[in-house]
Amino acid sequence: MTRHTILVVDDEVNTLQVMKSLLEDEYTVLTAESGQEGLERLAQADIDMVIADQRMPGMSGVEMLVAMKRLKPDCIRIVLTAYADFDAVVLACNQGDVYRFVLKPWNPDEMEIVVRQALEHRDAVRAREELLVRLERQNRELEKAWAELKEAQDTMVRSEKLAAVGKLAGGMLHELKNQLFLVMMADDFKKRYWYDEELSHFLESIGGLNHIVTDMLDGYRHYVSGRRPTLILAEEDIEKLTADVVALTSSAAYALNRTIEQSVLGPLLVVCDRHKIKRVLTNLIRNACEATPEGGKIVLGRRVEGDEVILEVSDNGSGVSPENQQRVWEPFFTTKGDAGLGLGLDLCRSFVEGHGGGISCSSVPGEGATFTVRLPLGGPGRIPPA
Predict the structure, then answer these.
(1) Whether the Cβ atoms of residue 340 and residue 356 lie closer than 8 Å to each other
(2) pLDDT value of position 80
(3) 116 found inside a domain
(4) Integer Cα distance of 139 and 276 in angstroms
(5) Domain range spanning residue 147?
(6) One domain, residues 154 and 216
(7) Which residue of 273, 274, 286, 366 is most buried, as measured by CB atoms within 10 A?
């Protein structure tokens, strides 16, 4: 058991000797003959309790104990007082500067009881504080462990979902390729009936379907495998590309009774994979249509900043809440319920970042949202087009 250290402060040497004789069998007892000497002793030793006489020249017992409280708050403080100083000592007790007082002349047996109870109280308070500190530390460790476990669980669930999506995409691609043999014959029919302009245009649209389906499923397979998408880069007129996207989406069922417009600024050459950028813009416009009520308006804007082209899809729909503006990029996060898989925007981001660009969302709930795509004019590596 730890032996407590008690400091006794009194200007009467006889009192110090009596107190030391009374307590030294059980405790380590230090003495001081003035308030100043008592403060010096407190700074030199690890003291658990101070017993001080109230009436001392220069500094009263309460004044010294108040100073000691600032230096060592957990040191328990007892004052010895006569009736004449009773009011000042009671005030000190009420303010918490003194644990308790003992009236003079004091009884040795009572003094031993007071000292033992005071130290038990002090030990209980210290144990409680140490327990609280330990509990707080353990709570922080548990919170950290829980966060790590949750992250590991989310990663495992995400991996399982991605594996399932990859397997599904592979199977779908295989089956669709088997079923789309007629679509792949569109080029042959187009060459055979080249003189029929209307049929040629129709066959060109059918031929594009093969690229769209194959690219879509192949993109999911690359996505779930963790590899960057394969880009087929070429110099493309972004004006024509966006016009094709607007024409395609305007005729889709999700765009019914909604207006899709684009800013027309003239030809602009950008090095990109046209199919993947069309996929990105089509996905963004579809999301905008689904977030916009009938009669709503979606605008595909374009501008150039430095060596980047900025493409923006804006709508006047319900908008995206602040807490979801970052979450929309998380795999499998969706606000569409069973109607959405939650991979579209994350896949779009992988396509855009594969080009060396970036994609972001800004929104005011109830006033619509804007999704911004930034692409280097020269493609990945930002090499300016010739």
Answers:
(1) no
(2) 86
(3) no
(4) 48
(5) 142-227
(6) yes
(7) 273
384 inside domain:
no
Query: Of 106, 131, 156, which residue sits at a domain end?
Result: 106
**Residue 353: burial class (beta carbons within 10 Å; 0-12, 13-18, 19+):** middle
Co-location of 97 and 181 in the same domain: no
- Give residue 204's identity as a one-letter amino acid code: E
Are 314 and 370 part of one and the same domain?
yes
Measured on CA atoms in the order 218, 223, 224, 226, is the torsion positive or negative?
Answer: positive
**Residue closest to 10 by CA, chosen among 32, 30, 29:** 32
Nearest to 335 by CA among 354, 346, 316, 320: 320
pLDDT tens column, 312-357: 999 988 888 877 777 777 766 666 655 555 567 877 888 898 889 9
Residues 16 and 53 in one domain: yes
Q: How many domains does the chain have?
A: 3
For residue 319, give the DSSP letter. Answer: -
Which pLDDT value is given to residue 178? 53
The answer, yes or no, to whether the previous bond of 384 is cis (omega within 30 of 0) is no
Q: Which amino acid is at 291?
A: A
Q: How far is CA 113 from the centre of its chain?
A: 55
